[in-house]
Amino acid sequence: MTLLRPLRRPRSADEQVLRRTALRIGSQIAAAVVITVVGLAAVAVVLVLQNQHRADDVLMNTAITRVDVSDPPAGTWVVVRRDGGSQITTPGRAPSAIRTPISFVRRATTNAITP
Question: What CA–CA distance (Å, rounded) separates 80 from 87?
C-alpha cells in the first residue's frame, strides 16, 4: 500500500509575496514585543535598586543623626568610639564584623568612610 501525498496546487507569485510579507510582519511584531518586555524589566530592576539604595541611605542618615546607641533603627547596630578609646555599642548580639575592631570610621563632618 502506498501513501499518497495530497497534491498542492502551485502557489502564484502574489500568494508567495503575501506569505513572506505576513511572516516578516509577524517576526517584526514578535521582536518588538521582546524588546519592550526586556526594556521594561530593565527599568523595573533599575528602579528597585535605586529605591533600595535610597532606603539604605535614609536608614544610615537616621542612625547617624540620632546616635541613640540604646535604640537604633531596626536592623542596625551603632558603635560610638570616643577620643579616649572607650566605645559604646548597641545592646544585644551584634554581627561579628561589629564585635571585632572596626576598620572603618565614619567621620561626622565629611560623611566619608576612611580606613
Answer: 6
